[in-house]
Amino acid sequence: MKQRLAAIGTVETLPHRVAAFLSREIESGELNPGTRLPTEQELSEKFGVSRNVVREAIAQLRADGMIEARQGVGAFVLAPEQRASIRIDGEALKDSENMERLFELRCILEAESAALAAERRGQEHLDAIKAALDRMSGEERWEEGSIDADLLFHREIARATGNSYIHTFISFVCEQIRRSIHYARLTNPLHDLVEVNVGEHVRIYEALVAGDPSAAEAAMRAHIIGAAERVGVKLPAARRKQSGKGK
Amino acid sequence: MKQRLAAIGTVETLPHRVAAFLSREIESGELNPGTRLPTEQELSEKFGVSRNVVREAIAQLRADGMIEARQGVGAFVLAPEQRASIRIDGEALKDSENMERLFELRCILEAESAALAAERRGQEHLDAIKAALDRMSGEERWEEGSIDADLLFHREIARATGNSYIHTFISFVCEQIRRSIHYARLTNPLHDLVEVNVGEHVRIYEALVAGDPSAAEAAMRAHIIGAAERVGVKLPAARRKQSGKGK
DNA sequence: TGATACATATCATCCTACAACTTAACTCGA
DNA sequence: TCGAGTTAAGTTGTAGGATGATATGTATCA
Question: Which nucleotides of C are covered by protein (CB under 7 A)?
Answer without folding.
Answer: 9-16, 20-23
